[in-house]
Amino acid sequence: MSDRISVLFVCLGNICRSPSAEGVFRHLASEQGVQDRLSIDSCGTGNWHIGKAPDERSTAAAARRGIDISDLKARQFCADDLDRFDYVLVMDRSNLADVREVWHQNGGTEPRLFLDFGASQLAEVPDPYYGGQDGFEHVLDLIHEASLGLLEDIRGRLA
């Protein structure tokens, strides 16, 4: 397989879930010593927040875990992402439907639900945007667990 693996996390606005996933995954990849073999990015299916930093609540929740996502900037998903990334991982079924529509028209990497890599009974990472701080912590827990499963899958490809 390739000596470099690329991973894209996708949510709706790219200010809560997907930048959190990017940050957590980068952090865990660094801890496991594989960060130099990975290219990691995030984006949103919507265009409302292009160029903006992650939501302050996401940034604060990540910072409490020693993860800095404050320098990330939102961008919108594009069809070329399906050709550039080995993994296109979406946070919920709505995001999956949006990205699959582009995939059906253009081909490339087939998008998957991110939590497929975790052991949670949940299929989707819930959007914490309209909730309280506990929602952001819950999202980070789900992301952390799925990231460990994703890293295990990637290690098999890098071997």
UniProtKB/TrEMBL annotation:
Signal peptide: none annotated. Keywords: Hydrolase, Protein phosphatase. Its EC number is 3.1.3.48. CDD domains: LMWPTP. SMART domains: LMWPc. The keyword Hydrolase applies. The keyword Amino-acid biosynthesis does not apply. It is an enzyme of class 3 (hydrolase). Residues 5-153 form the Phosphotyrosine protein phosphatase I domain. It holds the Pfam family LMWPc. Belongs to the low molecular weight phosphotyrosine protein phosphatase family. This is protein-tyrosine-phosphatase. It comes from Marinobacter daepoensis. The lineage of its organism: Bacteria, Pseudomonadati, Pseudomonadota, Gammaproteobacteria, Pseudomonadales.
